[in-house]
TrEMBL record:
Record has ATP-binding as a keyword: yes
Membrane topology designation: Multi-pass membrane protein
Name of this protein: Phospholipid-transporting ATPase
Enzyme class: translocase
Enzyme Commission numbers on file: 7.6.2.1
Taxonomic lineage of the native organism: Eukaryota, Metazoa, Chordata, Craniata, Vertebrata
Organism expressing this protein natively: Strigops habroptila (Kakapo)
Cofactor (UniProt): Mg(2+)
Region (Disordered): 549-570, 1243-1262
Amino acid sequence: MLPLVAVLTIIAIKDGLEDYSKYKMDKQINNLLTKVYSRKEKKYIDECWKNVNVGDFIRLSRNEIIPADMVLLYSSDLDGICYIETAGLDGETNLKQRQVVRGYSEQVSEIDPEKFSSRIECESPNNDLSCFRGFVEHSNKDRVGLSKENLLLRGCTVRNTEAVVGIVVYAGHETKAMLNNSGPHYKRSKLERKVNTDILWCVVLLIFMCLTGAIGHGIWLSRYSEVPFFTIPEPDGKSIPPALAGFNMFWTMIILLQVLIPISLYVSIEIVKLGQIYLIQNDIDFYHEKTDSTIQCRALNIAEDLGQIQYIFSDKTGTLTENKMVFRRCSIAGQEYCHEENARRLESYQEVDSDDEDSAYHQCGSSMHMSKWRGQDCRAVNEPLNRKSLNLLSGSHSALGREDGAGDVPPSGHVAFSSPIETDVVPDAQLLKKFSQISSHSYDQSEASSKLSLETMYITDFFLALAICNTVVVSVPNQPRQKMRLSSLGRMPIKSLEEIRQMFQRLSVRRLSSSPLPSVKESSSESPSSFVSKLSIFRVKMASPALDGTAQRAAEPHNADSPENSQVPQELDMVNVAAGCERNSATSSIELSPLPKLCYEAESPDEAALVHAARAYRCILQSRSPDQVTVDFAGLGSLTFQLLHILPFDSVRKRMSVVVRHPVSNKVVVYTKGADSVMMDLLRTASEVDTNNSEMEQKKIKERTQKHLDDYARRGLRTLCIAKKAMSDAEYAEWLNHHFLAETSIDNREELLLESAIRLETELTLLGATGIEDRLQEGVPDTIQALRKAGIKIWMLTGDKRETAVNIAYACKLLEPDDRIFTLKSQNKDACALVMSKILEGIQKNTCKKQPSQKLGNVSASLSTQSPGFSAGLVIDGRTLEHVLHGSLQNVFLELTEKCRAVVCCRATPLQKSVLVRLVRSKLKAMTLAVGDGANDVSMIQVADTGVGISGQEGMQAVMASDFAVSQFRHLRKLLLVHGHWCYTRLTNMVLYFFYKNVAYVNLLFWYQFFCGFSGTSMTDYWILILFNLLFTSVPPIIYGVLDKDVSAEVLLQLPQLYMMSQKSVAYLPSTFWITLLDAFYQSIVCFFVPYFTYYGSDIDIFSFGNPINTAALFIILFHLLIECKSVTWIHTVVIVGSILFYFVFTLAFGATCKTHSPSSNPYWIMEKHMTDPVFYLVCLLTTCVALLPRYLLRVLQGTLFPSPVLRAKHLDRLTPEEQREAIKRWRDDCVVNCRVEFQATSGSSSSATGSASEEESIASVLPTSKTPLQACSRDGLVEDTSFLSDIRMSPGTQMA
């Protein structure tokens, strides 16, 4: 029982220390102080977080941590805005806006909790961070809807706001942050599952040995005709029957032989894994200097799984690419502007070291080569990502170490998406020339030149959309995290609350009565502009635009519904707007003061890239508030737009819109940006255009823009369409009426808001498109090539469009120029099944002529290699994935993917990513690894066997959900090929050695039972028996598992094929386990019977007989380890020699001091006598040699006659550098020859299911594309291989070969 107690004690101490550290952290968080309103003392008092309850009023100051989920009722910001930093929840350091509840934002003074009489009703506690439903019901029964914009979440930090007050709605374990903290996600490694199975076999073996002992003891007793003299009778004088004695002996044997179950193996495995993790974390090659970060091993129990990965599922943006969005090209009004000077700058660009950037002069905006366009820039570097996240339960521990939540302000330079490569944009000369005409061209003199005026209007609106269609926060660098504000002169007085109440009461009555939605005339007896004014005031918007001193209104507000105005085309009206603005601000534009230093904090790098691109053309976003946004436009002065609505981006609409009131025309304008796949369908049709000229022009612009978009996609650029829509006040009032009903609805609020947004985003006018480059990370192509040579299949799962995804796949060498690409695109399940079956037939026709020839030992044959004459890749979109993931098509799909060297899934949702990973993991029984950098990758990271997070620019959610976190995708190469291989081989060899050691030693006791009547007697003292595994032979296998190195890191990196040895579990096959046990049985027989026949017929006592057996067993077990070691270091030598010396010292001391009164089993002076006996040394030497000779000869023959790839690679380490290079070259040449095997033989471990394919019409297309990487999957370059798809109707727009 002592070994078991020792093991359990170590585990208990380890778990106890972990629990105590968590307890201290929890206590520290629970005792943080915050200001809570006390109704007894009538003031805010300091209270611990653990005492905060639902309904408490909390007052927070700048830089304080939010202690509970609370609804925002007051903000010191004049616009009712509170800025928060959500780094504690998702790792993002950019600021987020939260809005005071409607009806409370116009308060001049701080809210008085004593006067608060409203009732708040909200949904039950849940873990959805992106959604919050509820309402505030006032005493007069009026209701105001609540959304996530009104909720401050626990763990976030208040920034940019002097004071905020909120009421707690969720506290303690009911907060969203706590509900999202489900504890550590425990994953069991594949090796651990195998070990558990083999331990069960050891249990079976133990039971068999104990049954043998019990039966043998019963038979031995039954052979005595009389009661043996050594049998102790029962109190009644009767003796125990042989059957009962055998039953009792069974349990005695269980106690004697229980060492066969390697309980200490689990502790040894944990120690070895800690040592392996230590070596991984201290590998200098994983250090990334730019981010000052290294690898994080967040899961300690699956390090060996890194050596068995078969599938890698990778995100694209931020994982394979840098997620540094660089503005490259744009198309405006059908005219493309290539920005060649900017492209040349990017080619020669070198990132400045972060140390130099901190000490250098920081500029904000665009660094341009033209002095008159040069702006001031506040370049900033990313915040170092290696700072420890102290978040455990509250979502952020950044408050720890502060008193009362106070803390330091973050450095101003650390702003996301603000590296110089993103902010510095060189304008296109041609576009710049046209842009300058906006201020110099006189519209009065060029009324005949309508085409030029129209193009100028397009350019103006295009850059205005880039500047304002976003949620970018503008801050001042010399005052960190401070919002940039401009003085507004034209604020309208706030309407009375009674007027607001009456208006909302009308809306509520209509909604509750379920009557049809009222028309504009029914909603108000006043004019539409007055109605809109009231609604805008209710949303704390101003009825008229706030004007800067440098920009005046062109005309007084007029009725947009008048007959005169209704006849004016919208395009011409906007031209007049631009002209009027230019006339009124031409003078002021000349006397512009120097630009303030501005920093842009965006929620995504795409937004930041577009804002910086607009800034490069002097369309500068100056300030943003909840009700207005100010843009300094070159030549037009400062324009302040009244911000009416922001319709944020979502995965359903795939677009974002802002609704503003133009400061000159006073018209409502909608600016929209989004994916071309949805935007092109929202454009105005021919019947809606006023004139024939406009109709033709719009059609030409759309066609030319589509060609530019296709070209951008072929170049691997991320594309966005920019559009606008001008609305009359009547149209806007009608839409606003519907939208407010949706906003104030409690049930189905999200669905109603979605319908409202879709209703607005129609009949758009296309302005242009942008192409943004997301450059590949350093070393991605080489890493992917190495991983593919290692037999790992790589799938790219991305939300981007097909063309962009495919061309990025070509750029990173996921797809090769000679690959035949099949694009699977279908509208229904039956058509999808038909197309997949046809693809399989076509692949089989191309590969059936090759003859399969692969052996397990041939490490050159890869799971992802195909015959040289044929190589296939599969591209599938998100819509088709919905059909493919259906149960009846899963097996066919997996069979198809196994025959393709790469799979690219585009337009995939986060849920589809996780379902794909789970499908491959469960159906193919394959080891999977998912790697991503954003919150949309969390689900697949958690589903995969091993999850890797990239600490990029999309926050730290992926890192926090991952098992391993790296800063670059290229680090996967060494992590898998080197450390994965080492961890797996080390741990498997150690586990097998543990099984061998225990079985070999326990069998010595088992063989002795045949000579002692199966009485359960031991020929060794029990203390030595107990300490043999606990002390004498415990440390060497641990050192062996941590430090053994079969092949050097350099050779493993140069020969990725070696990875397949661990991938296929060659070191730990079932046969290997049983051969190890057989070897242990053989060595135990030799170790027992050599001393037995040596001392046969002598009169030595039992311990004198057992001592040479025990000593020989020690030598055999330790020297067996030396034979298995691939690299013997001085540490190995010290540990093994130390173990032997410790054994002799202990036995000598034990024999000299421990004396019993039983002469037949007295250990006294046993070792001392044997140390003077030459026979003892001869027995130990002969026993060790005979026992180890077969294994030693096997290793010698294996290394000389039939060496494994690992042994061949180990030999390379002994060569000189030149010889090593030549040998590796020859090895690679051999690999090329050996790779000429049939792909069908190497792929496919899953059973294929034949799906029922109907002959229904299909829009699916199977498109093997052209061989040029940058022209694959283009609309004009699609090449159809119809040799095996003659019965499938092709999708329109494709060319038939």
